[in-house]
Design brief:
The protein is α/β, with parallel strands linked by helices and 470 residues long. It contains 18 helices and 15 strands.
Length: 470
């Protein structure tokens, strides 16, 4: 079979050959939805190829973490969903012969070279919108195929990773991601179609689905429990089953059309911007081998479930789900998801009540210890578009990391990226200038900076964004 992304086929093949030659491999992955699916794909491919391995996770590859990795004594270390941005530090261990790195990543590479490195940015592909970390791991998995092994079923996890990495923000996955989707459809593990893009179509009862549809923000329905029920009751449809509200996934096509058309009419009549109305409908990705009505059936809900494990240092639970555990691991993930939702809701409420500081080219808030540093970026993204928070400016959020340092998360929009925004470059340059470190993607990036340097850091970020946006 032809490789799904020809531009990266040689790089993936070289990485696969080095892994086959290893006696055993340490698999180290980032701890978010994209990182967990990256690890799940790589772990499955290594197992199928008969390559012994151990898996571990890290929030970031700082000097302390790299020392821990080096101390394990593994000759070959496979990094997934990070490693490129830390290549200058990793290269030092390679030069000393401590371990051989194999990197499958999609973040901006540092100014260093290594032989076994697969990253879309090396071949002119966009790592923020065309290929995720999970997608890059999928290319490795395809390169690891041997006789009788077909890893195309792992395309489903690659799509979950891409969706979790916000690469479908413009309505559908594009570029190299689209080629992986096609392989997943051909392999019988994915289905795609145009449908309502609100979060929770598989699991949320219809009134809750509409009430929590903050992205669309339709007056009289969004954030209005009674309004959502009145809207549904006024449609003349039987939307209950045994007295309980049905979910979107339970509806037939005619019922879906009726509700969608009514939503659009309501949005137009209440002055909702056209781009948000258009965003109500988009391409959805269904994992057809998963049970209908569960979080694992829809790529967006699956990725959120994984994020709930990752953000609370339970990467072991998320990986177990990616490897097929539908028992204890899934129940624990659901418990973590309930807690995750409460924390997000409380964090978002705090931001709305406290408000943000506005500079010329950005807006920001400092949550201190009120919002965990593992979720402050998610909260910042959710807050955009709320009252007093401008969709036309990037948002930068601070949270306490330790006694001396702050975690920084920056979020933009794809519209701003098209105008020249590159938050990865901004975070990297501004953090470096204040003895911190940063990086990420053009639309979403992060940094760690000294708390005492917050004012200088904000000034530098504001100036750099202004230069990018002209």
């Amino acid at each position: 079979m032809d490789p799904p992304v020809p531009e990266l086929a040689d790089r993936a093949a070289r990485c696969a050959d080095r892994l086959r030659a290893a006696d055993e491999v340490l698999l180290v992955s980032h701890i978010d939805a994209d990182g967990l699916t990256s690890a799940g794909i790589a772990a499955t491919a290594l197992e199928r190829a008969g390559i012994p391995f151990e898996a571990t996770f890290a929030k970031q590859l700082d000097d302390e973490e790299l020392e821990r990795i080096a101390a394990t004594g593994y000759d070959v270390v496979l990094f997934t969903d990070f490693g490129s941005g830390q290549l200058d530090s990793i290269a030092a261990y390679e030069e000393r012969g401590t371990f051989t790195p194999v990197i499958c990543d999609h973040h901006q590479p540092a100014e260093a070279e290594t032989e076994f490195h697969c990253n879309p940015l090396q071949e002119g592909l966009n790592g923020a919108s065309e290929l995720s970390g999970a997608g890059t791991s999928y290319l490795l998995a395809r390169a690891l195929e041997g006789e009788g092994v077909d890893n195309r079923d792992l395309a489903a996890l690659a799509v979950v990773g891409a969706v979790g990495d916000m690469q479908a923000s413009d309505g559908e996955l594009e570029g190299a991601n689209a080629a992986i989707v096609e392989e997943g459809v051909d392999a019988g593990v994915l289905d795609t179609g145009a449908d309502l893009t609100l979060y929770g179509t598989q699991t949320r009862p219809l009134p809750k689905l509409l009430e929590y549809a903050s992205d669309a923000a339709i007056p009289g329905i969004s954030n209005d429990a009674n309004g959502a029920i009145r809207f549904l009751d006024g449609l003349g449809l039987d939307l209950r089953d045994g007295g309980e509200w049905r979910c979107w996934a339970d509806l037939n096509d005619e019922e879906k059309r009726t509700i969608t058309n009514a939503l659009v009419r309501r949005a137009v009549s209440r002055g909702v911007p056209a781009d948000r109305i258009d965003g109500l409908i988009g391409t959805t990705y269904t994992l057809v081998r998963e049970e209908p009505g569960t979080e694992l059936r829809d790529a967006s809900e699956f990725s959120t479930l994984l994020n709930a494990t990752a953000r609370y240092d339970r990467g072991d639970v998320g990986l177990a789900i990616c490897l097929g555990d539908r028992g204890p691991a899934l129940e624990e993930a659901r418990r973590l998801l309930r807690s995750h939702r409460r924390n997000l809701s409380e964090g978002l409420r705090w931001v709305k009540e406290t408000g943000v500081e506005s500079e010329e080219h950005l807006q920001w808030f400092d949550a201190g210890d009120r919002i965990p540093e593992t979720i402050v970026g998610i909260v910042a993204g959710m807050a955009v578009g709320s009252a007093g928070i401008d969709r036309g400016k990037p948002i930068v959020a601070f949270a306490e990391k330790n006694e001396d340092d702050a975690k920084v998360s920056a979020r933009g929009t794809h519209t701003l990226v098209r105008q020249g925004l590159n938050l990865s470059a901004v975070m990297g340059a501004a953090a470096s200038a204040v003895d911190g470190e940063g990086g990420g993607h053009d639309v979403a990036a992060g940094a760690t900076v000294p708390k005492a340097a917050r004012g200088e850091f904000i000034d530098r970020v504001d100036r750099l964004i202004g230069e990018q946006l002209g």
